[in-house]
Design brief:
Radius of gyration: 23 Å
Low-confidence stretches: 229-242
CATH class of the largest domain: Alpha Beta
CATH topology of the largest domain: Rossmann fold
Shape: elongated
Number of strands: 9
Order of helices and strands: HEHHHEHEHEEHEEEHEH
CATH architecture of the largest domain: 3-Layer(aba) Sandwich
Distance between the termini: 26 Å
Strand order of the largest sheet: 7-8-6-9
Number of helices: 9
CATH superfamily of the largest domain: P-loop containing nucleotide triphosphate hydrolases
Number of domains: 2
């Protein structure tokens, strides 16, 4: 508690839900936090506002969820902290702003910052993180390097046909598992190449094909081979980016 002010100056935090003064404008909030933190470069704050296309003239209650996210990112990054803790940072951001956020994170990494990121988006984790951990029921169950997890290569596939097709059409196809049928659709898990599937369904009229990346938890469970991943011992740590 004695060093709490110094710690806050060295840490940037973005919560999942940003709760600030509803009647204050973005500019008033930013100015207040600049004065509170001290040692904030005004030019860098203006750069963040410009790069995130944030309008600081509106009151907090009039901001959309995306603009609240932008304000939260500005407040977390403005003092160029040594440690960033970001909870679902791209929620509400459009694709262009997501790319801007990734660039800001890479710049923080280049300055030597450590970044802890909470996310359910696999592509985001791949872009930002070096190591990834899974939390289940409030306990740390596993920590792995992202590069190692990416060797677990599978996708969920949904095929839509003009007419119902029996799941048996995919029987014995290499890499296909967990096949289910619903109406004119076949859903399954694919590990490997797609060409054997095209050969198997060549006599059926395909209307649509949809692929979906597995969730991080599915990748973890596949990586460990079952759902009973033992909790990590207390001496292990998580390092997102250094």
């Amino acid at each position: 508690q004695r060093h709490s002010l110094e710690i806050r100056r060295r840490v940037g935090f973005l919560p999942a839900e940003l709760s600030l003064w509803e009647n204050q404008t973005g500019e008033q909030i930013i100015r207040y936090m600049m004065a509170l933190r001290g040692n904030v470069q005004r030019a860098y704050v203006h750069e963040l506002i410009e790069r995130l296309a944030f309008d600081p003239s509106k009151t907090m209650r009039n901001y959309s969820s995306g603009n609240k996210r932008k304000l939260g990112l500005i407040l977390a990054l403005m003092h160029q902290p040594e440690l960033l803790i970001l909870d679902e940072p791209t929620n509400g951001l459009d694709p262009l702003m997501q790319q801007t956020f990734y660039q800001l994170v890479r710049e923080a990494q280049a300055r030597g910052a450590t970044i802890f990121l909470s996310s359910h988006i696999l592509s985001e984790v791949q872009t930002i993180c070096e190591r990834v951990a899974i939390l289940r029921e409030g306990r740390l169950h596993a920590v792995e390097r992202v590069a190692d997890l990416m060797h677990v290569n599978f996708k969920w596939i949904k095929l839509t046909f003009r007419e119902p097709v029996s799941p048996s059409v995919l029987a014995g196809v290499p890499g296909v598992s967990e096949v289910s049928a619903e109406g004119n659709q076949l859903k399954f898990r694919l590990t490997g190449e797609f060409d054997p599937i095209l050969r198997a369904i060549r006599n059926h009229y395909l209307v649509d094909l949809h692929t979906q990346e597995p969730s991080l938890e599915e990748i973890f469970l596949t990586f460990y081979g079952n759902g009973n991943v033992a909790p990590v011992q207390a001496h292990n740590t998580v390092e997102a980016i250094r």
